[in-house]
Amino acid sequence: MDAVTHVPEPANEPVLDYAPGSPERARLESALAEIGSSGPVELPHVIDGERVAGTGRRIAVRQPHAHRKVLGHLRNASVKEARSAVEAAKNAAPMWRELSFDDRAAVLLKAADLLAGPWRARINAATMLGQSKTAYQAEIDSACELIDFWRLNVHFARGILEQQPPLNSRGVWNRSDYRSLEGFVYAITPFNFTAIAGNLPTAPALMGNTVVWKPSPTQQFAASLTMQLLEEAGMPPGVINMVTGDGLNVSKVALADEDLAGIHFTGSTPTFQHLWQEVGSNLQRYRTYPRLVGETGGKDFIVAHPTADPDVLRTAMIRGAFEFQGQKCSAASRAYVPASLWKRIKGDLVEITNGLTQGDVTDLSNFMGAVIDDRAFAKHKDAIDRAYATRGIDVVAGGTYDDSVGYFVRPTVLEIKDAADESFRTEYFGPILSVHVYPDAQYDRVVDQMERFAPYGLTGSIIAQDRRVIADATKRLRFAAGNFYVNDKPTGAVVGQQPFGGGRASGTNDKAGAAQNLLRWTSVRSIKETFVPPKDHAYPHMG
Ligand SMILES: NC(=O)c1ccc[n+]([C@@H]2O[C@H](COP(=O)([O-])OP(=O)(O)OC[C@H]3O[C@@H](n4cnc5c(N)ncnc54)[C@H](O)[C@@H]3O)[C@@H](O)[C@H]2O)c1
Ligand SMILES: N[C@@H](CCC=O)C(=O)O
């Protein structure tokens, strides 16, 4: 029973390509048709394994590219449901932490296999319809990244448990006991990645914690399916308690609870800072210091050197800025391009950007869908309108928007004279790329200016051929990005390959899907056992 087992060797889940005629495409199209043709569903809270309708404000979950189509309805959690969720998590804690690691790991390994197989098309289709992702963007998120999170977290967690003190004095045996945190973990997840939503509650759960999970309302459709999948994988009632809605009442209850042991957050910088402040002001209430893990916003950069390959640069800009409508925290939203290169790439960049296909994501020929909701649409519209109204900014591609059918914002390139313009520091979280074109000789000045201009430190790329430039930029931009790319776009980190997260205003850099993150969800106890203990208090020097 107590054998130290080996967990299955992890490997990244292969990305399926959904080419015309492929079996995965047929499965996906049938899942899209099935969801698309069934009426709106109720998206209840799941507390202690029970579906709870709730009494709070009812909110429609819409398809962003066809906003008249409603996928389902949720209700904002009231204080009552928030209390029930916290109580359920606390009650389930002794049972869950007493289960062996292998039992907890088996739930996630089974969930990963279910997602890789029978659940794949359904969750991808839900992510496409609910978050307006193309087939490829859904596949790398809701299938591959989530499967990788679950499999690799088990692998990394096993590695942590194996870390034991290297030294034992004679007659002594030292051990490390990886305890869960004392209390419950509050997981709050963003709209843009089904994988992140699935990882944030399950990573602490793997380490023996029970969780209150509050998904984003605009991701709730896929989140509810993820919850069902976890139940099918054998997750016991009460381990993960999902409450829906805006989270205000959940925070009111959870952040004031003496047993709050941690927050696992991904979302915007202001939301995380607000949660941190609340925890700070409640500090004296808590039994233990809550662990605060937050991955937040970015203003991710591409710096091109005059030696850059123009095709590599253009492709990194288009894919990095516009895939999933620029709604990745890692999306390239500012680029610094030398004048000599800009002359060479501008024509193609503008033509390709203006030709990017956009529309309903069930039409698999589209490169892009819509932005997530009316609020995001309004923010991007304001940013584009401001660009038109500002001297020194040229809207060289895109620059249009239309919300009559869906929340469509055309991929937009702004050529901006002033490197200190606010669009080089503000996260719009949409398909808007600000480009500063600099005289080739001023490369060094530009790198110095951009390194600190935005408050964030999430992702960034250097595009250059000269090795000395790459080496120098890697050093000079060391703290400007937690994920740094050489001759590639700054998006698309793969679990187990490029552990993801950033510093400065971008978060606590605890690297999702890596051992660093899992360590935040365990509180180590050191056990020293002395086999033949001393029976006399005196030391030899006392004579
Ligand atoms: N660094 C990363 O790894 C990463 C990954 C994905 C997204 N992001 C960031 O997330 C942001 C976009 O996501 P979003 O729009 O969902 O962010 P958001 O901050 O608006 O919302 C995130 C979550 O917090 C919830 N929330 C907001 N206020 C709350 C409160 N007081 N109590 C409880 N919950 C509350 C929301 O309902 C949602 O579930 C961008 O800034 C993006 O850069 C970062
Ligand atoms: N990990 C993802 C971004 C997640 C944030 O939205 C990437 O690397 O593109």
UniProtKB/TrEMBL annotation:
Its UniProt entry gives the catalysed reaction(s) as: L-glutamate 5-semialdehyde + NAD(+) + H2O = L-glutamate + NADH + 2 H(+)
Q: Which Gene3D superfamilies would you find in this protein's record?
A: Aldehyde Dehydrogenase, Chain A, domain 1, Aldehyde Dehydrogenase, Chain A, domain 2
Question: Disordered: where is this region?
Answer: 1-21
Output the Gene Ontology terms for molecular function: L-glutamate gamma-semialdehyde dehydrogenase activity; proline dehydrogenase activity
Is Oxidoreductase among the key words of this record?
yes
Q: What pathway or pathways are given for this protein in its record?
A: Amino-acid degradation; L-proline degradation into L-glutamate; L-glutamate from L-proline: step 2/2
Q: What EC number(s) does this enzyme carry? A: 1.2.1.88
What Gene Ontology cellular-component terms does the record carry?
cytoplasmic side of plasma membrane
Looking up InterPro entries in the UniProt record yields: Ald_DH/histidinol_DH, Ald_DH_C, Ald_DH_CS_CYS, Ald_DH_N, Aldehyde_DH_dom, P5CDH/ALDH4A1, Proline_metab_enzyme
Enzyme type, top EC level: oxidoreductase
Organism encoding this protein: Terracoccus luteus
Q: Which family does it belong to?
A: Belongs to the aldehyde dehydrogenase family.
- Protein's name in the database: L-glutamate gamma-semialdehyde dehydrogenase
Output the superkingdom of the source species.
Bacteria
Q: Which residues form the Aldehyde dehydrogenase domain?
A: 55-526
Q: What processes in GO biological process is this protein linked to?
A: L-proline catabolic process to L-glutamate
* Annotated keywords: NAD, Oxidoreductase, Proline metabolism
NCBIfam families referenced in this protein's UniProt entry, alphabetically? D1pyr5carbox1
One Pfam family assigned to this protein is: Aldedh
Supply the SUPFAM superfamilies for this chain.
ALDH-like
